[in-house]
Amino acid sequence: MDSFIQISNFPKIAPYAQLFRQGLLVTVLLSAFTVAIGFVIALLLALMRLSNVRPFRFLGLDKDGHQKEEGVLAAISRFNPLSFLATAYVEILRSTPVIVQIFIIYYGVFSVIKLPSFQMFGFIKFDRFFPGVVALGMNSGAYLCEIIRSGIQSIDGGQTEAARSLGLSQVQNLRYVIFPQALKNILPAIANEFVVIIKESAITYTIGVQDIMFAVNAVKGATFIIIEPLLVATAIYFCLCFPTSKLIAYFERRMSRGDKR
Description:
Helix content: over 70%
Low-confidence stretches: none
Strand order of the largest sheet: 1-2
Structural class: mainly alpha
Shape: elongated
């Protein structure tokens, strides 16, 4: 019986090493841009979910100006459109497959919005790379939103009261008091999400993004070898994810030193 893995096949992959190097660069860039876009979207969504915008509040007031507790008008008065939109966004993107979202963005949105056709670094097709970044960033934002929101809510309310007593505005309180403390609490979850993004970026090869899995598919089509290129891809992903998780864990320990008494 033939061996499951044939060592003799690895030299046949060597001529395609440049494809794997290019795929590594694309994966790193894809993950970096995804994290940046996802974090901005997540922060905006988290603030929307924590907002207290109720345009129909007046409908829930009685004759004496007190808030009603029951009734249809009372329910309408508690409606927060910003929180509703953010919650709908999060639930829809968390409840649908990433590949479906990528196809909708690439074949739907960017079939209407025409992107310029040029190559970054001489080989990255922008009209395929950018839709992949947008789709992954939107998906990551939905997950990071809940992480950021829980981190902000974990900060004791007394911190906000103290900030107000010092004359800080709501924005200053969030920027200088709440968010720095919340960031330390949510750093492990953000690190885990970052590692997940590196692995999930492999799905973008389905729309022609030249990542690591695109290189695997190219080698398979040229040599009819599949297991050995997959092992090479596995090693590359491991070398990306494992050191990244350890590096972030190191910075997490450094940031938590100030909390120890």
